[in-house]
Amino acid sequence: MSRNSSEPQKFQKNLNPVSVWSLAFGCIIGWGAFMMPGTTFLPSAGPLGTAVAMAVGAVIMIVISFSYSYMVKRYPNGGGEFAYTRMFFGPKHAFWCAWFLALAFIANVPMNSTALGLMSRKLFFGVFQFGRMYAVAGYDIYLGEVILAVLALTVLSVISILGTKETGVADTVMAFSLALSFLIILIAALFSPVTAWENLQPLWNAKPGVGAKEVLAGILAVVAVTPWAYVGFGTIPQEVEEFSFSSRKVIRIMVIAILFGCTVYTCNTLVTAAASPDWTAFIQEHDWAVGAAVEALMGIPGLVVLGIAISCAILTGILGFLTATSRLLYFMAGQGVLPPWFGRLHPKYHTPSNAILFCLAFSLIGPFFGRTALGWFVDMSAIGAAIGYGYTNLCAKKALRLDKGAADTRSLTLLTGLGAVFSVFFLVMLLVPGMPGCLTAPSYILLFAWILLGIVFHAVINRKAKNRGTG
To answer: How far apart are CA 4 and CA 238, in angstroms?
Structure first.
């Protein structure tokens, strides 16, 4: 069935609140939550600095989530940020919002798939590390790891096509397994004789003699990545037509998902720092500090539990972003931004199977480029998320002008304004050279290429629209 047909939509309403929370939480927590404490968070901000940064980021995301929940309640139709922007700012703004938002979603799919190979290197003695083919940006590409990533992407795409009920069940099982595994590691860390609060010194970052300016810069560098770290809550509006519950519950689901994400990011960092008397030396000695810390705390059983947690984090991330991206493409097709082929539902399973297959085809390219090159794309995903946040807040602000009779209009207006300011703040931090958290040179080049590609694509779409209008 096509989105452009006159038939009513036939999405199955199989997503309950727990399923939606699982999808959001699974997108928030991926491989990065278990890698970045040693590579980014601790070197930039230290244990306490990371805790402050992630808390600040969570508060900002919660502020922004009120705009999302308001728009979902007022306009409970699919398309999320794309639909809101088209409604209040027109098709051109909607295109660019969706263009960057799609990048923010889909870039995480192949990146998570390649994390399976990296996990096998760390936890399973590199069992898939065979058949070296070539290297990209210093990262070796192995046939075995490519096969593993391709199989995972294919299986999860099939699950996604089979229906939202199956997707929701799979995501719920994995999300709760992730949460339980993390809880086991956290309890073990709290009661382990290896853990000591004194080990958290220095509290801020690894640089000797840092002053207030350096401390603030380190915290801001971590805050700058929170649009990417918490982007999972922004996938919820894409699935609104599949809710089996009132959209009034969305704000609670979003806030709980964000708080759970903040807890995992922060505690992983604190556990890593507390597991060694000198965490500054520890993160330099180990290329995977979280894994080394868990092994020091719990031994081999700890690595088994960690392996379960990471596997679930990776798989829920793939499944969640596949779901969100395919729905976004589906609703874009319904507005003529994409060919009608993207707007067809599977006749039996009532899922946007063509859009899912496109996401699969796009994602299958990723494992052949390796994690370093994919990382440049993922760095850009924070920009796409910030743009989506900004447009949603501005749309909510406009919508509130039409809803003056609502009791909470004044407080929501304040929150939407703050959310818009925070979105601009994120873009400044990411795009202005010299700012904490700014993109690397390869990411700038890819960003410029993505914009040029968008200009060409938008021109083609406009030309076809004009031809249809004159024909």
So the answer is: 18
pLDDT at 9: 53
User: What tokens appear for 82 in the block?
Assistant: 């794309």
The two counts, helices (H) then strands (E), for the chain are 18, 2
Helix, strand or coil for residue 63?
A: helix
Q: Cβ neighbours of residue 215 under 8 Å, at least 6 residues apart?
A: 45, 49, 204, 205
Distance CA 293, CA 289 (A): 6
ω before 202 within 30° of 0 (cis)? yes
What does each C-alpha distance from 378 to 23, 68, 121, 383, 452 come to in angstroms? 19, 23, 21, 10, 18
State whether residue 223 is helix, strand or coil.
helix
Match 């452009």 to its residue by tokens: 4
What residues does each domain of the chain span?
Answer: 17-401+408-470
Q: Is the dihedral of CA 459, 337, 318, 113 positive or negative?
A: negative
Mean pLDDT per 10-residue segment, the chain (471 residues): 47 88 92 89 93 96 95 87 94 93 90 88 88 91 95 95 86 94 92 85 78 88 91 90 90 96 95 91 91 91 93 93 93 88 91 95 92 81 91 94 71 92 93 88 90 90 69 40
Cβ distance 284 to 291 under 8 Å? Answer: no
**Distance of alpha carbon 21 from alpha carbon 115, whole angstroms:** 23
Contacts of 296 (CB under 8 A, 6+ apart): 194, 275, 276
For 155, residues 6+ apart whose C-beta sits below 8 A from its C-beta are none
- Helix (H) or strand (E) segment spanning residue 461: helix 441-470
Give the pLDDT of residue 211: 80
Spatial distance between the Cα atoms of 120 and 122, rounded to a whole number of angstroms: 5
With contact defined as beta carbons under 8 Å apart, do 292 and 211 qualify?
no
DSSP-derived 3-state class of residue 425: helix
Q: Give residue-wise pLDDT tens across range 274-312.
A: 988 899 999 999 888 999 999 999 999 999 999 999 999
End-to-end alpha carbon distance in the chain: 25
- Report the chain's C-alpha Rg in angstroms: 22
The residue assigned the tokens 């709980």 is 256
Helix (H) / strand (E) containing 398: helix 370-401
Domain 17-401+408-470 has CATH 1.10.260.40: no
Contact 28, 320 (CB under 8 A): no
Can you list the alpha helix ranges (DSSP code H) found in 163-299? 164-191, 212-223, 226-229, 250-274, 279-285, 289-298
Beta pairing class for 132-136 and 139-142? antiparallel
CA 382 to chain centroid: 9
